[in-house]
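INFO batch 0412 | record 1 of 1 | parsing
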Amino acid sequence: MLAHMAQRVLVVEDEEDIAFPLVRTLEREGYDVEWVDSGQRALDTLASGPELVILDLGLPDIDGLEVCRRAREAGYHGAIMIVTARAGELDRVVGLDYGADDYLAKPFGLAELQARVRALLRRTASTMIGSADATQTDGLRIDVEARRVYAGTEEVPLTGKEFEVLSILAANRDKVVSRGRLMADVWDENWYGSTKTLDVTIGRLRQKLESVGVTDRVVAVRGVGFRLEGGTPDA
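INFO prediction complete | emitting tokens
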């Protein structure tokens, strides 16, 4: 069998002593790695479509959170992992609210970074709903292969995490999916952050679905999890 093309990773880090071992480690793992040292160069490079961006927040020109937000607004659908020395729960939740998929605090071990990268790329490449190419709910169409969601003909711009949460809920339509399962399937066992991250992601997902007039609703079942329900109301 032919080998798959190497997955492309963009490292955005202005400190050489952090960037070099990171790039070397990822290249040894078989990834095609590109390194840039500023937010503007990162945004310019995203057009080439790397599967994963490892993004430092403390950049010299544009704050990493702003880079993350602009990347998502520009339609970047790949995975974004934020790396930062900034401590605190607020930064973690705010970072993910800007459209990041994962978060790693400095200093970090290279083995942990490798595990996170593998998990993110595996999820980015995986299809969350069996072998079906697309899942249709009333007024909502999920194209799993392309990782895109449509309301009628209009695309709903979702981050990687929002897409995965919606995919799992759609595959279990009208059934409750537990918070634990969503955290395990979407953030995996390497995630040590707060489950508030799930609530932030669900909140953004609801806003986006409502903004395009989708009648499907993500409903919280107190103490258990979430359920996708609704659709075209009965006449």
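INFO post-check: The CA atoms of residues 80 and 101 lie 5 Å apart.
INFO record closed
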